[in-house]
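Chain A, query sequence.
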Amino acid sequence: MAEQVNEVARLRMSLIPYLYSSFADYAFKGIPPVRAMNLEEGYRADAVLKEVSFDATANPYAMALKQEVKDQFMVSEYLLVAPLFEGEKERQVILPQGKWYDFYTGECVGEGEVITTSPGLNKIPVYVKDGAVIPLYPEIAKLDDTKYPLEIRHYGEKPGTYSLYDDDGGSYNYRKGEYMRIPLEVSVDASGKKEGKVETSDIERSWSFSDYRFVFY
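Chain A, predicted structure.
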């Protein structure tokens, strides 16, 4: 069990650039970093709930209103999280319209449908929207003043953009405008070839990032 807990902790640390940017959007724009599926464009619970079997004993969170599902949620714009509960070996996940991809493998898992997943104990089911750009740290145990290389993942077939937030991470100087937004962009041409673009000078001037590389799924 310790290894499974460590795996989840490493995932959280890797996602800090994405999560930090999401909470910055909440602070500056009022956009919730974690949101109900009902707020996701293309999500139609009423169209697919009839396919889902609920068990109030195994998962009381699933017994929500007929038009609402409470045991899966969006983390910012691109990530759909569907945790398993005690005793569950598999679960059903409602995917909104458009293509969705497995966070870990990049495999397309479906679009606008209900899927069944059985990821095992090591992985929380996480799915990524088509065209998503996800900034990640390497696996680290804790944050310090080190500048870390950035892995920029792109999932799917659509082009994508992301506004990466950064500040000094320790003071309130962001209130005085001492922060930056680093635009990340992935274009996709007619043949499906992908190309990533970053304003390199912004990366070099940032507080947190030493370098970057794109990974295309």
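The helical segments are 2-14, 16-29, 45-48, 200-205. Residues 61-67 have pLDDT under 50 and may be disordered.
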